[in-house]
From TrEMBL:
Cited Gene3D superfamilies: NADH Oxidase
Family recorded in the similarity comment: Belongs to the nitroreductase family.
UniProt keyword terms in alphabetical order: Oxidoreductase
Domain of life: Bacteria
CDD domains referenced in this protein's UniProt entry, alphabetically: MhqN-like
Domain spans labelled Nitroreductase: 26-227
Transmembrane segments: none
Pfam families named among the record's database cross-references: Nitroreductase (PF00881)
Name of the protein this chain belongs to: Nitroreductase family protein
Oxidoreductase in keyword set: yes
Length: 250
C-alpha cells in the first residue's frame, strides 16, 4: 500500500462523526437553570481533559481551571457571580483562568516532555530563543522598544512578520484568547456527555480572585456553571444573525 493510500485509509478510519458533532453544537445552549442531578467526577475530569486538547499557541497552555466544590467557597463564589441562577443552581461551578506569568516555565516543560527524544534542534531553538524573544519585555518595556524597531526594519526589508508581544496587555490578550478556546471545548464536552453549561462574564473578578487565591498574573476569563438542563433553563428561542451579514469572502 502506498504512503498516500495508507494516509487516506487512516484518515477514513478516524474521521469524526459529523452528525454527532452537529448535534452537540446545535443543542448547546446557555442554560440558566439546572436540576439537582450531579455531574460525576469522572465525567467532569473527562470534560476538563477534552478542554485542554484545545488549540493553543506553541502548546504553552496558559490556562487553569478552578472547580469550586467546597460549600463555603461555592457560597461566596455564587455571591461574586451576582447570585445568577446559572451559578446558584449549577452542579459544578468552574473558573476558567488565563495565566500571563508561566510561559517560560511551560516552554521548558514542553522540551522536557516533548514526544520525540532527542528533541530536534529546531524545536529547542524555537522554545529557548524564539518564544523567549516573543514574550520578553524587560524593565519598563525597554526590550519591547528594541523589538518594535527591529520588527519595523524586517517588515520593510523582507515583508510580513508576526508582531511579538510588546506590552502586558499583549500577553494578556494572548493568554485569554487561548483560555477561551479551552472554555469552548469544555462546554461542548459537557454537552456531549449530556450536560449543559452557561458561560458567565458577569462576576466580581477582584473578589473571585481573592476567593481563589489568585495573583495579578491570573485572569479569570469566565465563570462556567454546569449541570443538567432544567425545563425552564433556557430563557428564549435561539437565533443568530444571517451569515451573509457576518461572513466575508475576499
Amino acid at each position: 500500500m502506498s504512503i498516500d493510500k495508507a494516509d487516506r485509509t487512516a484518515a477514513s478510519i478516524h474521521t469524526p462523526n459529523l452528525q454527532a458533532f452537529r448535534e452537540v453544537v446545535e443543542s448547546r445552549r446557555s442554560v440558566r437553570r439546572f436540576t439537582d442531578t450531579p455531574i460525576p467526577d469522572a465525567v467532569l475530569a473527562d470534560c476538563l481533559r477534552l478542554a485542554m486538547l484545545a488549540p493553543n499557541s506553541s502548546n504553552l497552555q496558559p490556562w487553569e481551571f478552578y472547580v469550586i466544590d467546597s460549600v463555603d467557597s461555592r457560597k461566596r463564589a455564587i455571591k461574586n457571580c451576582m447570585n445568577q441562577n446559572a451559578a446558584k443552581t449549577s452542579a459544578r461551578l468552574i473558573a476558567v483562568v488565563a495565566r500571563t506569568d508561566n510561559w517560560h516555565d511551560h516552554a521548558k516543560q514542553v522540551l522536557r516532555e516533548y514526544p520525540v527524544n532527542p528533541v530536534p534542534k529546531k524545536v529547542k531553538d524555537y522554545y529557548n530563543k524564539v518564544v523567549t524573544l516573543d514574550f520578553l519585555r524587560g524593565p519598563v518595556n525597554i526590550v519591547s522598544a528594541a523589538k518594535w524597531g527591529t520588527i519595523q526594519v524586517i517588515r520593510r526589508a523582507k515583508g510580513p512578520i508576526k508582531s511579538p508581544y510588546y506590552t502586558f496587555d499583549d500577553v494578556k490578550n494572548w493568554a485569554t484568547n487561548n483560555a477561551a478556546l479551552a472554555a469552548q471545548n469544555l462546554m461542548l464536552a459537557l454537552r456531549a456527555h449530556g450536560f449543559d453549561s452557561c458561560p458567565m462574564g458577569g462576576f466580581d473578578e477582584p473578589a473571585m480572585k481573592k476567593l481563589l487565591g489568585l495573583g495579578d498574573d491570573h485572569h479569570i476569563v469566565m465563570m462556567i456553571g454546569a449541570g443538567a438542563r432544567a425545563d425552564n433553563g433556557i430563557y428564549h428561542t435561539q437565533f443568530r444573525f444571517d451569515p451573509d451579514q457576518l461572513v466575508h469572502y475576499v
